[in-house]
Write a structure and sequence with these properties.
Layout lengths: L4 E6 L3 H12 L1 H8 L3 E7 L15 E2 L3 H6 L5 E4 L6 H12 L3 E4 L2 H18 L3 E2 L10 H8 L5 E7 L2 H11 L4 H10 L8 H4 L2 H15 L9 E2 L7 H10 L1 E12 L2 E12 L11 E8 L3 E8 L3 H17 L25 E11 L4 H11 L4 E6 L9 E2 L2 E10 L2 E2 H13 L8 E5 L3
Parallel strand pairs: 1-2, 1-4, 2-3, 4-5, 5-6, 8-10, 10-18
Antiparallel strand pairs: 7-9, 7-11, 9-10, 11-12, 13-16, 13-17, 13-18, 14-16, 15-16
Length: 437
């Protein structure tokens, strides 16, 4: 039996406690499998006295996570504090500077500092592992970095936020957005301030990391086009169903002639596609490559046990001596990120308009679409029983749904800008992209 691998865990919240519980419960089996024991020998968290339902008898306590990272009693720092900066960033840098490997589940940290930390790990001969940072229990980082390394990847897309997927699933079952969000908060899926999830920022952080590993570019979280789901209304859910689609918040990255396109937004996906069948808090990521074709991984994207499973998977790799560049290739060989323009994005579009009930309004809308070179697949006026049509003051508004053939984002935005400026519709048009899968 080889020398034990000694772990220091910074952060003992839901995930950290689950990691300790897993290692304590499966310790003998892991030691037999690896030929060496894996022990949590030290920890740091905000409240030493809190009852976490764990045995802490053989675990040394550190009030300062940076002090824990520098301690000579540990071989690996497991960072589960969270946050892009502060104690998380400082402790990870301290561990790597000391030549200690790091396992983290911190997507915000990697989205902000991933290239810097990967470079530091390589310089110090340490490993930086982060399977749990994206997709919870789904082994997507290892799949991209190792299993699919022989492919030239062309596109990846996925449901990367279980909170949003839960809300959209409940809206399909008849709930309005506010009620679905309230239920997600009551069940612990959404925070009291849910904006990081529902406005797409969480998905964008994860997508930035996946893009780097998949396409060999530097991480650029600020280059991602982001829209959230807070503007989705029951009318959109119903229209999607009638048209044979479901609405999902997708993170999409793909190669284009002008660069790597990264975008996060509500998307209509064909109802019979694999990604459309992913419901509730489940996550899924699909990857397309020249030799693999298309492959999709799905599973629990959050939660203590699922995330702990991914963390321990990284720890096992370190115990076995597995060594890979953190982002799939040496940090020095990562290409500067070249952003594709969202205006150049091509695809179909769903548009929902509140058209003023006056002569020539429909003709004007069709003309503006034609002038922008947009071919319409369908235009549907949703007639309502007398007296039930929406109004603005005394003015009757006619709900109209338009589905376009494949066109560019620039063309759609140009046409809608003119339609809105001319006053043919009330308010802003609802626009949802249709993804070809």
């Amino acid at each position: 039996m080889h020398e034990p691998l000694r772990l220091g865990i910074a952060g003992l919240g839901t995930v950290g406690a689950s990691v300790v519980r897993l290692l304590q419960g499966h310790g003998d089996a892991l030691a037999s499998q690896l030929g060496r024991p894996v022990h949590v020998v030290a920890a740091s968290a905000r409240d030493e006295g809190r009852d976490r339902g764990l045995s802490m008898l053989d675990i040394a306590w550190h009030d300062d996570p940076v002090g824990l990272a520098r301690s000579t009693t540990i071989d690996v720092l497991v960072e589960l504090i969270g946050g892009a900066d502060g104690a998380a960033h400082a402790s990870v840098r301290a561990a790597l500077n000391a030549g200690k490997s790091v396992v983290t589940a911190n997507k915000a940290l990697l989205a902000a500092h991933g290239v810097e930390l990967a470079r530091l790990a390589e310089e110090r001969g340490a490993q930086l592992a982060f399977e749990a940072a994206v997709g919870g229990g789904i082994p997507i980082i290892k799949t991209l970095r190792e299993a699919l390394a022989g492919n030239r990847l062309t596109r990846l897309y996925g449901i990367l936020n279980g909170t949003c997927n839960f809300i959209l699933t409940r809206m399909e079952q008849g709930m309005a957005y506010p009620a679905a969000l309230a239920e997600a908060q009551a069940l612990g899926y959404a925070e009291a301030d849910p904006s990081f999830d529902v406005e797409g920022l969480d998905t964008a952080h994860k997508l930035a990391i996946l893009t780097s590993v998949a396409f060999g570019t530097e991480i650029d979280r600020d280059a991602i086009f982001v829209e959230g789901i807070s503007g989705i209304e029951p009318e959109d859910i119903a229209a999607a169903d009638e048209l044979g689609y479901r609405i999902k918040l997708l993170g999409v990255a793909q190669r284009t002639e002008s660069g790597i396109e990264q975008r996060v937004h509500p998307t209509m996906v064909p109802r019979d596609s694999d990604i459309a069948r992913v419901s509730g808090v489940t996550n899924a990521v699909a990857v397309e490559g020249d030799f693999i074709g298309s492959v999709m991984l799905s599973g629990p994207g959050a939660g203590g046990n699922a995330t702990a499973s991914a963390v321990v998977g990284d720890i096992i790799d370190l115990a076995r001596g597995v060594r890979v560049p953190p982002l799939g290739r040496p940090a020095a060989s990562l290409q500067p990120y070249r952003q594709a323009r969202i205006q150049a994005h091509e695809g179909g579009y769903y548009l929902r308009l509140k058209v003023r009930d006056r002569p020539g309004a429909f003709a004007a809308i069709a003309n503006r679409m034609a002038e922008a070179g947009i071919s319409l697949d369908s235009i549907v006026q949703r007639n309502r029983p007398p007296g039930t049509a929406p109004k603005h003051g005394t003015e009757v508004l006619q709900p109209v749904t338009i589905i376009t053939h494949s066109t560019t984002e620039q063309a759609v935005r140009s046409a809608l800008g003119k339609i809105e400026a001319e006053g043919e519709i009330f308010g802003r048009a609802q626009m949802i992209r249709i993804e070809a899968l």
